[in-house]
TrEMBL record:
It comes from the Bacteria. It comes from Desulfonema limicola. The lineage of its organism: Bacteria, Pseudomonadati, Thermodesulfobacteriota, Desulfobacteria, Desulfobacterales. Coiled coil: none annotated. Gene3D superfamilies: Trafficking protein particle complex subunit 3 (3.30.1380.20). This is 4-vinyl reductase domain-containing protein. Residues 111-173 form the 4-vinyl reductase 4VR domain.
């Protein structure tokens, strides 16, 4: 499934498998700490093997591909921007990813300030001197790319880890 060397990404939602068939007793729910264990150990190995910039680039790109796949598979409202955002908010909350809010929006320029509270990646972590939601940046970029067909630059400007109680993202077209 992933062993061959290649230049393009081949992820397809079917690679997630039939969770109901494979986990008839445990289902789709797992503890957030297990997700963070995978995420932070993977990031640590990438930083050790390469550097922080490379690890962040890889996490952003992986998040972007996940955002595209998530939008294609999970989001059903794709004709109207307000309905799209409402569906996205509902799905992110229902799946336990976080609570998405739009603080500011300019639909003419497609520029936004978004917040995610109770973020899967960082809510509850100790305060440090960094923002850490690089995967989320890519995830948001990918979701918006799938909806608009245009590339977006998403940058986290506030994070639970930098002392805020929400993650705040600046979103602009590329």
């Amino acid at each position: 499934m992933f062993k061959e060397e290649r230049d393009e990404l081949l992820f397809d939602w079917s690679m997630i498998g039939d969770i109901n068939l494979g986990r008839p007793n445990l289902g789709t729910v797992m503890d957030v700490s297990v997700y963070r264990l995978m995420q932070f150990t993977l990031r640590d190995v990438l930083i050790k093997s390469y550097d922080t910039e490379t690890a962040d680039r890889i996490f952003y790109e992986a998040g972007k591909q996940a955002g595209i796949a998530f939008s294609q598979k999970i989001i059903t409202q794709k004709n109207d921007f307000n309905e799209f955002i409402a569906d996205l908010q509902n799905q992110l909350k229902a799946l336990g990813v976080g609570i998405l809010r739009i603080e500011k929006s300019d639909l003419e320029t497609m520029s936004f300030t978004l917040t995610v509270s109770e973020d899967l990646d960082c809510s509850g972590l100790p305060v440090s001197d960094e923002t850490i939601c690089t995967y989320d940046e890519g995830f948001i970029s990918g979701i918006l790319f799938d909806f608009t067909g245009k590339s977006f630059i998403v940058k986290e400007i506030d994070c639970w880890c930098s002392g805020d109680r929400v993650c705040r993202f600046d979103v602009k077209p590329e």
